[in-house]
Write a structure and sequence with these properties.
There is one protein chain. The protein is built from 11 helices and 16 strands. The model has no long low-confidence stretch (mean pLDDT 96). The structure holds zinc ion (ZN). The site of zinc ion has 5 residues, from loops.
Length: 410
């Protein structure tokens, strides 16, 4: 069976042309560009031998029937929406590669004991409605109908956007798959990070989609005159926050695979001649297990409190977001690793620092992911790039995995 990597890349290029702006790629949920992308993807699915249609939330869903009709499926896929000014591989590569694998099976007349369902999810990035994974949550049966009345960035509620797209908001529940019908969900995706490039490897097996916390941290000291208050008498909230930022870096660096980031900081009152009395900063902590994540947060809190006590300021953490870790199934990791090894590629396992549709699908099936190296680890950026040879390896690994797959959770 043969994989045509050049066709995969050409299709990513074709999808990249479907954008709301001419000089770049932006394609959000339920937009005219998404409709055009769906038309193309459904056509490719049908050409590959899948029966394909849009589901109740606007995902492209194609089914390649098993040896016996109606058998449970191996679900493959990724997303077709993008961030603003996106790259052309984040999401789309996984959808197009899955279609290519089915095309190879179909051309060879191969039917398997399980069906293959390929899904191009309509929303993963959450750009339009501010809530991620809308497509995959609908498929997992965990779509929150309260979101229907949430206005998008353009002011149009999701309910109205679905209607304008020709979908019925009352029927979103029909997109759901029953857990008994899905043997596993496996996604190929670009790494969006630099690990595989640094290791000199085209692909890697994902161990988990990292869970994360986000907090707003508030430090309160005492504002004062920058000229008159002696150093020993100050309660400088920004100097305290600076120590906290370094503590985040030290705690995360000291724990394997934990990452911690302070991405935003604001000092008040924010004047050149005033000692900062109050500082707010963001804290983002992610780890491949919930235990590691909780331990890292506890260590950060302890450091913050010690710094605050020593500097006579107060500190408070306000939680703003939390996602559980979605561990990749051990048996699926083994099968993916065997497929990688069969391509004479060293098996590298790595966690995913970014979120993916598997975080929703894990509610109905074991999940697995295969990462493909991307240039410089750059993603969510027009400079996103992959090597054709790496794409070919990724597609062959996915096809080997499909052929070796047999259902069942580890
Ligand atoms: Zn993605």
């Amino acid at each position: 069976m043969s994989i045509d990597a050049s066709r995969i890349l050409a299709r990513c290029d074709a999808l990249a042309a479907l954008s709301e702006q001419p000089d770049g790629l932006t394609r959000v949920f339920l937009s005219p560009e998404q409709r055009a992308a769906n038309t193309l993807v459904l056509q490719w699915m049908r050409e590959a031998g899948l029966s394909a249609s849009l589901d109740a939330i606007g995902n492209c869903v194609g089914r390649y029937e098993a040896q016996a009709a109606g058998a449970p499926c191996l679900m493959l896929g990724s997303h077709l929406d993008t961030v603003r000014d996106a790259g052309r591989y984040d999401g789309m590569l996984g959808v197009v590669t899955a279609i290519e694998c089915v095309a190879a099976l179909s051309a060879a007349g191969r039917r398997l004991p399980f069906a293959i369902v390929v899904i191009g999810f309509g929303d993963e990035e959450g750009v339009r409605f501010g809530s991620t994974l809308l497509g995959s949550r609908a498929v997992a049966g965990t779509f929150d109908t309260a979101l229907l009345d949430r206005p998008g960035r353009d002011g149009v509620p999701l309910r109205d956007a679905l209607c304008a797209f020709g979908l019925d908001p009352a029927r979103v529940g029909e997109a759901a798959f029953a857990a008994r019908d899905v043997l596993a969900y496996v996604e190929l995706h670009i790494e969006q990070g630099p690990v595989l490039e640094a290791a000199g490897l085209p692909v890697g097996v994902v161990t988990a989609i990292n869970g994360g916390y986000r907090f707003n941290v508030d430090m309160t000291g005492m504002a004062g005159h920058a000229g008159t208050v002696p150093m020993a008498l100050r309660r400088d909230a920004l100097a305290a926050a600076a120590e906290c930022v370094l503590a985040v870096e030290q705690v995360a660096a000291g724990a394997p695979d934990v990452v911690g980031t302070v991405g935003r900081i604001e000092a008040l009152p924010g004047a050149m001649n005033v000692i900062p009395g109050r500082v707010r900063f963001s804290l983002d902590v992610r780890a491949p297990t919930d235990g590691q994540r909780a331990a890292a947060l506890a260590a950060m809190r302890e450091r913050f409190e010690a710094i605050a006590a020593r500097r006579r300021v107060s500190v408070a953490l306000e939680p703003v977001w939390e996602a559980r870790t979605a561990p990749c199934d051990a048996a699926l990791q083994e099968r993916l690793a065997a497929a990688v090894a069969a391509e004479n590629v060293a098996v590298r396992r790595l966690p995913s620092g970014a979120g993916h549709d598997g975080m929703a699908l894990i509610d109905i099936a074991p999940i697995g992911m295969l990462f493909v190296r991307c240039a410089g680890g750059i993603s969510h950026n027009p400079a996103e790039a992959v090597d054709a040879a790496d794409v070919a390896v990724g597609a062959r690994v996915l096809l080997r995995f499909i052929e070796s797959f047999a259902g069942g959770r580890a």
